[in-house]
């Protein structure tokens, strides 16, 4: 399958497919003329990559997980579940941090809005 055919089959741009290849997520072989060709399972591989990206995994982690994928779906071998749990824990920590920042920003905005309504804010000169 040529790169354009893979792009049409998966809905992923040619540029993004090349990026996946550069990152070691997708492999191709070259014809004598230098054109990329992909095996019949490439659409499945692209779908798996997209699923893992949607889960918030960086391409470096996905590259490490690719050999551990089971079947056509996003399931992985049990030996990498700890790694996925660590990624989930990291994501939860980042979400908690963002929620704290949002609460602080909301409080600042509320206090500033109340102060501006009462005339307590003095413009900078």
Relevant terms:
125 residues; mainly alpha
Describe this structure in words.
By secondary structure, the protein is mainly α. It is 60% helix and 3% strand. The chain is built from 5 helices and 2 strands, in the order H-H-E-E-H-H-H. The protein has helices at residues 3-10, 14-22, 42-54, 59-65, 81-118; strands spanning 29-30, 36-37. Strands 1-2 form a two-stranded antiparallel sheet. A hairpin with a 5-residue loop joins strand 1 (29-30) and strand 2. The radius of gyration is 23 Å and the shape is elongated. It starts with a helix and ends in a 7-residue tail after the last helix. The model has no long low-confidence stretch (mean pLDDT 91).
Termini Cα gap: 66 Å
Q: How many E strands?
A: 2
**What is the helix/strand order?**
HHEEHHH
* Helix amount: 55-70%
Mean pLDDT: 91
Which sequence of strands runs across the widest sheet? 1-2
**Number of H/I helices:** 5
Structural Rg: 23 Å
Query: How is the main sheet built?
Result: 2 strands, antiparallel
The proportion of strand residues reads under 5%
């Amino acid at each position: 399958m040529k790169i354009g055919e893979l792009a049409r089959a998966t809905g992923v741009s040619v540029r993004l497919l090349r990026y996946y290849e550069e990152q070691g997520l997708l492999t191709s072989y070259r014809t004598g003329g230098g054109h990329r060709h992909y095996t019949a399972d490439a659409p499945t591989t692209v779908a798996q990559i997209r699923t893992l990206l949607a889960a918030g995994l960086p391409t470096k982690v996905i590259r490490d997980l690719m050999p551990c994928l089971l079947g056509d779906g996003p399931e992985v071998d049990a030996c990498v579940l700890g790694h996925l749990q660590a990624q989930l824990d990291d994501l939860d920590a980042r979400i908690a941090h963002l929620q704290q920042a949002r609460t602080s920003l909301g409080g600042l905005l509320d206090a500033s809005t109340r102060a501006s309504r009462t005339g307590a804010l003095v413009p900078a000169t």
